[in-house]
Amino acid sequence: MNKLSAKAKSLLFMLLFTALTVKAQHNDTLLIRQIFDSALVNGQSWPMLEQLCKKVGHRLSGSPQSLEAVRLTRNQLLRLGLDSVWLQEIKVPVWQRGAREQGWINVDKRKGDIQQQNRSDIRLLALGGSIATDPSGLEARVLEVKSVDDLKSRTREEVEGRIVFINQRMDARPVNTFESYIGCVGIRYSGVVEASKLGAAGLIIRSLTHIIDTFPHTGAMTYEGAPRQIPAAAISTYDAEFLSKQLRDQTNLTLFMKLNCRSLPDTVSYNVIGEIRGSEKPDEFLLVGGHLDSWDVGEGAHDDGVGVVQSIEVLRLFKALGIRPRHSLRVVLFMNEENGLRGGLAYADWARNNGIVHKAALESDRGGFAPREFHLETEPPVLEKLQAFVPLLEPYGLTAIRNGFGGVDIGPLRDGQILLLGYVPESQRYFDYHHAASDVLEEVNRRELELGAGVMTSLVYLLDRYTF
Amino acid sequence: MNKLSAKAKSLLFMLLFTALTVKAQHNDTLLIRQIFDSALVNGQSWPMLEQLCKKVGHRLSGSPQSLEAVRLTRNQLLRLGLDSVWLQEIKVPVWQRGAREQGWINVDKRKGDIQQQNRSDIRLLALGGSIATDPSGLEARVLEVKSVDDLKSRTREEVEGRIVFINQRMDARPVNTFESYIGCVGIRYSGVVEASKLGAAGLIIRSLTHIIDTFPHTGAMTYEGAPRQIPAAAISTYDAEFLSKQLRDQTNLTLFMKLNCRSLPDTVSYNVIGEIRGSEKPDEFLLVGGHLDSWDVGEGAHDDGVGVVQSIEVLRLFKALGIRPRHSLRVVLFMNEENGLRGGLAYADWARNNGIVHKAALESDRGGFAPREFHLETEPPVLEKLQAFVPLLEPYGLTAIRNGFGGVDIGPLRDGQILLLGYVPESQRYFDYHHAASDVLEEVNRRELELGAGVMTSLVYLLDRYTF
């Protein structure tokens, strides 16, 4: 076998696969129905998510809540009767928001002949990693720009000493909202660098969401390349519209902002890991996972409590239905996806150093919405093999398996061999809640969550049985 | 042409269609992209829905609000500059809920050696069409049954004088929630008839929704075949679980219910109609519609404010993009879908009596969720022709055009010729809000609504251009 060309191997695989599917399709159809019945009728993904959201809540890396989440999910895994459950110790960065931010603008109001100055509050949320303002706050005139490119085209005279306000709308046209997100996430991640280069005193950005509401959305940013660190925050889309309107009437208005955040030395945290040993190829692993940390507002329900509980549910369903996997199945709940990726990096390092063979890794980190697709980082022949699974999953809402991005946490495992897979549910509502106080359990629909767990479990079953 | 066999006609159609699609596909792709860009960037479906939900609110047939909804949507149509806008006068039944319902159970509680009776409120919502209780209310022992069949198997001795409580859970297993709904809607529609036959004093049903929450869900019921009219109400799923638990501990507990509803003589109302005259076949109509009335709680947002504004938006997009239809396009906002279907029946009667030729009718009445499918009531050859449109709509989330139910309001147009089409978005969340106070604008996602309007407009465009 070792001497066969890749093409011959692929052909052999296809023949074998075809024969298997003809024989096995009926059994697979029945088993997949059982998986969904169990996920929908006796599913544990919802009660597990309820515990994570309501008993722990948000859980930024290094926070006491993040360690509570480690304990909770470790216990959830222990109760499944897996072959092993353990913690991988890692170091994570620590960033703290501190006391609640304050922000306002001073607006001139005319009543008859009398001119008054009124203070209007602006809802601010520091970007993750930002420094604080001076304890007395920062007050400065505002320069509104439409994009990072627009900012770069400004002169130092225009920018210096100002608070730059990047008011870029997410593009409404792409049907997949992640496409719009990628198109404007630069304002959040590196807008502060460009503002600093031109001497700005601070940065505020319009939150990265389509809807107009009053929740500011935070997220990671970098100072890399910035000559000076300046404070940076997001404001809600509603406030961005309001501020922009006020600036049209009154170009010299001032904005006050006070951020109280700080960075502390790295601290100890953990990836949470559990596994079922494979019956035929115990040394080859199929990994399923999501990330355990979240931003420090809301409850991290869609991002990524959902991915955590769906991943645990995959292993629970294997156990509950008595499905013995051929390969070892491993669930990894990664710490620190949001502001450092230390969990994903440490896990991949450990796996490489110990010669652990991963055949595939599936990540759920795009919310708990109704199933649509799986995305796969691989060459066409492998993609086509996996697409043969689609008819088995169509009755449950899956419409396609396509080329695309797997996931952030599993990315460091990329080695040219492993199949990296991303679970891709309906995307319309994801950015309504992303990194905001509105990302709470109540915004997750139980059935949509459970269908996601079902479709992930079915895919892992089919991968285990037919792909390697 | 008239002498050609159906088969030859069909073949000719297919050849013509194939030739057209090859030539036109590129143009169609561009035009459909324009339709979605306009729906997503400058769409009016959301502001129109906001007005219907927040300025009018719920709008049961015969209520003052239902006439406000007629005025509002007529004005919305007038502003589009259509070729004509008019009202079709109809008669509708009038049922009024009256003062808010009251309900409680008397529960024994033991504190040490002392036994106390505590009153626990039960959230009741009269079923549409129910009679009132006596002004002093109805108090009786409760008989819990699991289904209508379970009820039918009981003896008169068991049922007589009791309040029957049908505690049937919606089946969680079907992926399409409408399948579960059809499987248990009988408890609401005709449960009261079976309870009356066995001498029950009243009926309460578990609300028809998957989620456990505190909103009771109303809906239509009938007394046809009942020897005596008895009062009937829905209770929330949370209260159904609570009541069932209490009944296990205390089989003789009594439930008090007070309903204040009444039926009044029929009154005048209207279907709201607007149209764009066709350039080639002005006497052949393509109809798009939803229903204007709603139940008298919440805001009738998903049911069926969404269908109303999406249908108006179809005609708006034709006008805004300068698409001149070959056939006449007509939007019909039907009155009285919920408790009489008088609008749908009157429209079909009028059309038949006046020899109006409808080639197709498309209804949106399954909520404002992300696009999935269209369902079509027709024979396979026509279905296959329409399935050729799917690749053009897949980039916008449409996954299939299948055989299935068109819609309640367009049903009376069924004549063996007309194509009846239903817009079928993702179904998981629909029954969370259906006929309950939770059916409000805030539970509609703007992008999901707009994508629905886009995919409906695109289908109407393709039908107009290629199908007849």
Q: Helices, strands, pairings?
A:
The structure is a homodimer of 468-residue chains.
Chain A: H1 6-41, H2 45-56, H3 64-78, E1 84-96, E2 102-111, E3 114-121, E4 124-126, E5 138-145, H4 148-152, H5 156-159, E6 163-166, H6 177-184, H7 186-189, H8 191-197, E7 202-206, E8 232-235, H9 237-249, E9 254-258, E10 262-276, E11 281-291, H10 301-320, E12 327-334, H11 342-353, E13 357-363, E14 371-377, H12 380-387, H13 390-393, E15 400-403, E16 419-425, H14 430-433, H15 446-466
Parallel strand pairs in A: 5-6, 6-7, 7-8, 11-12, 11-13, 13-16, 14-15
Antiparallel strand pairs in A: 1-10, 2-3, 2-9, 4-8, 5-9, 10-12, 14-16
